[in-house]
Design goal:
The chain is α+β, with helices and mostly antiparallel strands and 183 residues long. The chain has 4 helices and 8 strands.
Length: 183
């Protein structure tokens, strides 16, 4: 036991560059785990944080940002339309940013885009657009020109509530680059 304590003391007090770097990386990993644990408990999601893989939400959420997600069971979604009427903003724009499974398929990488407005079954998905095959949210990346239902992201399919994982609440810039590099 004394030998282990001696090794730990050497590790903590060493002036070696590589050992200092290892200490810093262990500290960062510990902080990320702590943040994820706290968000798991407070936000109630099985996947409390995700690393953003694309630039579709620029400039508000960037590639490599880690986004903390609140469970859909613990919050209500405020769409862009509702947010613009009430003044509610998240990530520097009106309405909530949601994380959802494309077409409800969990094998796809989840999409993180803004909920623009709600449509009921049979309503046009956009002005002059086709009727919605079911009720759901029309979504769009802040950096995308078109809504997801026009683009290939969620072509002609409003996002059903049961496809939604949660609502993005906070983000930590650049922390997810390591996770993206590994995957």
């Amino acid at each position: 036991m004394k030998k282990i304590l001696s090794i730990i003391k050497q590790f903590r007090t060493s002036n070696n560059f590589w050992i200092g770097l290892a200490r810093d990386l262990i500290f960062i990993a510990g902080m990320i785990l702590l943040i994820m644990l706290v968000s798991q408990i407070t936000l109630g999601t099985p996947r409390p944080a995700v690393a953003v893989e694309s630039g579709s939400m620029l400039p508000n959420i960037g590639i490599g940002d880690v986004v903390l997600i609140q469970s859909i069971d613990r919050t209500e979604i405020i769409s862009y339309t509702q947010g613009s009427a009430s003044g509610y903003k998240s990530f520097d724009n009106y309405g909530d940013v949601i994380l959802y499974h494309k077409f409800g398929n969990t094998t796809y990488t989840p999409i993180i885009h803004r909920a623009m407005y709600w449509v009921d079954e049979g309503e046009p998905m956009w002005i002059g657009g086709p009727p919605a095959p079911h009720a759901g949210y029309i979504t769009k990346g802040d950096n995308n020109r078109d809504i997801d239902q026009v683009a290939s992201t969620s072509r002609l399919q409003p996002v059903k509530k049961e496809w939604i994982i949660g609502v993005a609440r906070w983000h930590i810039p650049w922390v997810g680059y390591l996770s993206l590099a590994v995957h």
